[in-house]
Sequence to fold (90 residues):
Amino acid sequence: ELEIGRYDSVNPDDVKEGVWWSIDRQNIWVVEEGQKKEQIDQARALEMVAKIGVPLPTELAHPGQLAPPAPPIEQHLAVPDPLPPIKSEE
Fold:
């Protein structure tokens, strides 16, 4: 599922206006006051999202095109070089 909306707080029920897509992206609903109110088509959903001002995920911006794969985790983590051994003073 995917929901894009304008919220008044971190509580998902506080969405003032938004759009909700089913997992298979075939069903789209207008969300008002945290509740799905009316089933809509893709064109209206895109208009509403543009009004909200949130960029669309790739799969919705370019239907039929899968999002690019995420880069390997090694690219996200900076692993520091190991510390040199401690020299004893004798």
User: Anything to note?
Assistant: The chain has two helices and four strands. Residues 6 and 31 are 10 Å apart (CA to CA). The helical segments are 42-52, 58-61.
